[in-house]
From TrEMBL:
Residue intervals of the NADP-dependent oxidoreductase domain: 28-299
Site (described: Lowers pKa of active site Tyr): 90
Family to which this protein belongs: Belongs to the aldo/keto reductase family.
Protein's name according to its UniProt entry: NADPH-dependent alpha-keto amide reductase
Superkingdom to which the source organism belongs: Eukaryota
Catalytic site: 65 (proton donor)
GO molecular function: oxidoreductase activity, acting on the CH-OH group of donors, NAD or NADP as acceptor
Pfam families recorded: Aldo_ket_red (PF00248)
Organism: Hanseniaspora osmophila
Length: 316
């Protein structure tokens, strides 16, 4: 029987964040339209079951995922106290949904039926001044306002590169440093943009990893990725070997590796067992050794980096 041994990262404002986000409501659950006919009972069921698990359940949401109704319903039906649910939300930037982050969050709070979110992010640095009427610094100022009002307990960014962060940090208007940068991160993409991992570590900006299980998803689609999997054979053998050694799933090995790299993994699954495995990740008797962590890092980076999300924006 797995025991819950919840771990946390400490953010640069001193607040603690549960060290694995178990239910991302984007990717698998992403919708382009939010109405009664697209309402996903499956997602509500998954969230409801997750909210029965012990410990603080960390949910990752965003304006653009169109999943507030499902998250709101599951939270409403849950008996878990609000302080045992961590909710991350993101203001949609590349595609304008609400006029400002203040409007966006007010709508989200209403749909989620909560008084605050635990973390609010700017979804990306790509804010078109002409469409939004403001740029990234002003967008950040809105987040600072929501932080001061207590509607967002922590604030951060997503998909920001070093230059994007430097722009914020060097702006005389900016008062609060982002607490988090959520980026695509896994052994096959250790730098979403050049130097971002190291820069965030130095600046005490917590890196959150979305797509932490990228290598397993790629292997699963082996037909399309045969050659890729073959080139990374040694890497895949190591993950299988470690899963056997520690009696853990391959997903748990990658999530634990992410944590050991001082990065918070944000995962998701359509299978409840995998959600449960992620919540039970921090078994007190399980930790990869320093050598194993380094070996995954090195084998993962020996081939060309592999990007899954935001390809168009990064190739511009
Ligand atoms: N800020 C941003 O721009 C972005 C944020 N995100 C956030 O991150 C969350 C997670 O992203 P996602 O890319 O889905 O993360 P993951 O890397 O956790 O991938 C989840 C996928 O992995 C599959 N999987 C799990 N275990 C295995 C296994 N052993 N073998 C093969 N496949 C496996 C799952 O399939 P199954 O359902 O069968 O278990 C699921 O489809 C999103 O939901 C969203 O909240 C995501 C993208 C961009």
């Amino acid at each position: 029987m797995s025991k819950i041994n919840q771990k946390f990262f400490t953010l640069n404002n001193g607040n603690k964040i549960p060290a694995v986000g178990i239910i991302g409501t984007g990717s698998t659950w992403f919708k382009t339209v939010e109405n009664d006919s697209t309402f996903s009972n499956e997602l509500v069921e998954q969230l409801s079951q997750a909210l029965k698990l012990p410990g603080i359940v960390h949910i990752d949401a965003a304006e653009i995922y169109k999943t507030y109704p499902e998250v709101g319903k599951a939270i409403k039906e849950s008996t878990k106290p609000r302080n045992e649910i961590w909710i991350t939300d993101k203001y949609s930037t590349a595609l304008k949904i609400s006029d400002t982050p203040v409007d966006g969050l007010n709508t989200a709070l209403e749909k989620l039926n909560v008084e605050y979110v635990d973390l609010l992010l700017l979804h990306s640095p790509w804010i078109d001044q002409a469409a939004y009427g403001f740029g990234v610094v002003k967008a950040w100022k809105y987040l600072e306002q929501l932080y001061k009002e207590g509607k967002a307990k922590n604030i951060g960014v997503s998909n920001f590169g070093v230059e994007d962060l430097k722009l914020l940090l060097s702006s005389p208007e900016v008062e609060i440093k982002p607490q988090v940068n959520q980026i695509e991160y896994n052994p096959f993409l250790q730098e979403q943009t050049p130097g971002i991992y190291q820069y965030c570590q130095e600046q005490h900006i917590l890196v959150e990893a979305y797509h932490p299980l990228g290598p397993l998803v790629l292997k699963n689609k082996a037909k399309e990725n045969d050659e890729f999997v073959e080139r990374n054979k040694e890497f895949y053998c190591l993950i299988t070997e470690l899963a056997k050694k520690y009696q853990k799933t391959e997903s748990q090995i990658l999530l634990e590796w992410t944590y050991e790299m001082n990065v918070l993994p944000v995962t998701t699954s359509s299978k409840f067992q995998r959600i449960k495995d992620a919540q039970y990740l921090f078994d007190p008797e399980f930790a990869l050794s320093k050598e194993e962590v380094a070996k995954i890092r090195d084998l993962g980076s020996q081939n060309e980096p592999h990007r899954t999300y935001w390809k168009k924006e990064y190739t511009k």
